UniProtKB/TrEMBL annotation:
Protein name: 8-oxo-dGTP diphosphatase
Alphabetical GO biological process terms: DNA repair; DNA replication
Top-level EC class: hydrolase
Keyword Cell inner membrane among UniProt keywords: no
Cofactor: Mg(2+)
EC number, as in UniProt: 3.6.1.55
């Protein structure tokens, strides 16, 4: 395994009610059947935001209009060392479609299993973020 982590752009599509979109990893990929936030590898000479926008067009057929950097997480899987760059998008065009044959689901309080290991701690942080937004909007 390489010492240098692979940069991965990950997007959290968030509806006004706080629901987020999760996708299921397709057959033939490591951790197939596990649920994760959509995204993919950042290509050489590509910004993280550009990678995110490209992946969302390729995977879901939607155009991300705005996205804010949220957090970064490094995780070492048996097959890869990744540096995940999470962005939250509340503005996009189009309805998500399963362009790679993957299942996906909108979730409020996420109840899907199994979840990709690097995703699990983020769910608690997302819940806190949503609570903060609800209380500041009140």
């Amino acid at each position: 395994m390489s010492a240098k982590p692979v940069d991965v752009a990950v997007g959290i599509l968030m509806k006004a009610n706080g629901d987020v979109l999760l996708g299921q990893r397709p057959a033939g990929k490591p951790y197939e059947g596990y649920w994760e936030f959509p995204g993919g590898k950042v290509e050489p000479d590509e910004s993280i935001l550009d990678a995110l926008k490209r992946e969302f067009v390729e995977e879901l057929g939607i155009q991300v209009l705005t996205a804010e950097p949220w957090c970064g997480v490094e995780h070492i899987y048996p097959h890869a060392h990744v540096r995940l760059h999470f962005y939250i998008s509340r503005e996009w065009q189009g309805e998500p479609q399963s362009l790679e044959g993957q299942a996906f689901a909108w979730q409020g309080s996420v109840g899907l299993t199994p979840l990709l290991p690097a995703t699990i701690p983020l769910l608690e942080w997302l819940d806190l973020l949503r609570e903060d937004e609800v209380s500041s909007a009140a």
